[in-house]
Amino acid sequence: MTTPAPGPFRTADVPLTDPYPYYRRYRESDPVHLGPDGSWYVFRHRDVARVLADRRYVRGPQPARIPADCPHLRRTVANWMVFMDPPHHTQVRALVARSFTPRIVEALRPRIRRLAAELVTALAEEREADLVDRLAAPFPLLVISELLGVPREDRAWFRDRALGLQQATGSRVARRADGFAVADAAARDLDAYFRAELARRRARPAYGADLIGAMLEHGGATPADDDTLVGTCIHLLTAGHETTTNLLSKGLLALFAHPEELAALRARPELTAGAVEELVRYDSPVQMITRHAGEADRLGGHTVPAGSRVVLVLGSANRDPEQFPDPDRLDLTRDARRHSGFGMGIHYCVGAPLARAEAEIGLTELLHGLPRLAPADEPVQYAKDLVFHGPERMVVRTR
After folding, report:
1. At 155, is the secondary structure helix, strand, or coil?
2. 235 within 8 A of 81, measured Cβ to Cβ
3. What does the angle CA 369 – CA 114 – CA 166 come to, to the nearest 5 degrees?
């Protein structure tokens, strides 16, 4: 028996603490839904997967909502792979893929483990602490700093600019009047930083030591490529930071809510790799992504006109019982590899291997370094952002 949809879908109406019952009503009654904003919202796994695999649906231009008086932010975002379509996307992705290989991620694992262990050791000194502030947010930034070869003495500055750039994402602009200005200043500073890094490395080549060196070695060795290289470095910083923060914090929340699964993971650490896939499926760090219809199409019984904005609700697709039986149950032994949490098709997340490694190592260090880790009495506070979805404050007890 299906439940009637509760009217026009508005992201502002979705409960941040648990959006999944709300999604279910649309997935069952109106799975390709025309919203009041003129966008088509897609809720079923099979429809989401079809759109992501269909090259008639394009990523489209950079967000038009970036004001014209933010030139640094506009130039930076224009050079992000996520806003590119072939053939430019193909060229940039090939450059990154040749440089950002599984071997580089595997070589990083000892350093990722050391960074996680340092943060867990510091966390253990406090009886209660905000896990987001003390571990989930700084951890991926430290890892990306290692990946990009950012010196340790620059990392506090680097983190400050990364957090500033976040002010232009999701609904954060609505919460801070000067959000775009802060993000534009951060984009300006990061642009200058990475251009200086490129110049320094060209003057004294030592290619391959980190991701910037690898990209220079594999086809970005002339100054004409700098806009793309700089934009890619900043994109990797932003894409790999916020999503992994949410994956770690929400993954731990899911385990707290399912103590039998938490106990199984503590007892059988060999489950961790599969557990990360299930945690991504169960509570996706990115809830929605957008495409544009390059031509008219029939989708879910509707005609989607050419040029339409199509919003793929990944969080709903990953709870679709047609793809994942008993989808609201966390099952760390489930084969969840067909989840859409990292996207699909040509825009599949190039940083997915790194995100998996960070989540595996971060959760392992937390659960084994803090055997009494548990939620504190303070309620979890979610960021007012449904797209990059996760807690902004999550207090835990460490002993």
Report:
1. helix
2. yes
3. 95
Q: CA 266, CA 272: separation in Å to the nearest integer?
A: 9
Please determine, for residue 1, whether its predicted confidence score (pLDDT) is greater than 50: no
| Per-residue 3-state assignment (H helix, E strand, C coil) for 158-210 | HHHHHHHHHHHCCCHHHHCCCHHHHHHHHHHHHHHHHHHHHHHHHHCCCCCCC
Reported as type and span, the H/E element at residue 396 is strand 395-397
- Write down how long the chain is: 399
d(CA 344, CA 118): 34
Q: Span 266-278, mean pLDDT? A: 94
167 neighbors 185 (Cβ within 8 angstroms): no
pLDDT-based confidence at residue 382 (cuts at 50, 70, 90)? very high
Over residues 127-178, the pLDDT tens digits come to 999 999 999 999 999 998 888 888 888 888 988 888 888 777 655 555 567 8
- Please tell me whether the overall predicted TM-score, pTM, comes out greater than 0.85 for this model: yes
CA distance 193 to 182: 17
244 and 142 Cβ atoms separated by less than 8 Å: no
Q: Tally Cβ neighbours within 10 Å of residue 265.
A: 20
Structure tokens at 390: 């996760």
* Residue 244: per-residue pLDDT: 92
Do 388 and 241 contact (CB within 8 A), yes or no? no
Q: Which of 205, 210, 211, 238 is nearest to 77 (CA)?
A: 238
